[in-house]
Amino acid sequence: MNTTSQSKNKAEKLVLEFLGRVWGPTHELNAIDELMTEDYTITTGGKVIKGRANFKAWVTEFPNQTQGCKHH
Description:
- This protein is mostly helical.
- About 55% of the residues lie in helices and about 10% in strands.
- It is built from three helices and two strands; from the N terminus they run ααββα.
- The chain has helices at about 5-20, 30-35, 50-65, and strands at about 40-45, 45-50.
- The chain has a two-stranded antiparallel ribbon with strand order 1-2.
- A hairpin with a 2-residue loop joins strand 1 and strand 2.
């Protein structure tokens, strides 16, 4: 396996671990500390979320923000 394939496989594994642990039914917020950098930043819905602590708060609040939305 070449280096590019190895990097892709590692990245895919990290993404799947992140999605499964943080967005899975248990919402393992401690996984954010393990898998994300301290200076992580995301812009969502026009709002900038900076840092692990703020991202944890956003993940915790996210289900409340989507109540009443239909999922297809």
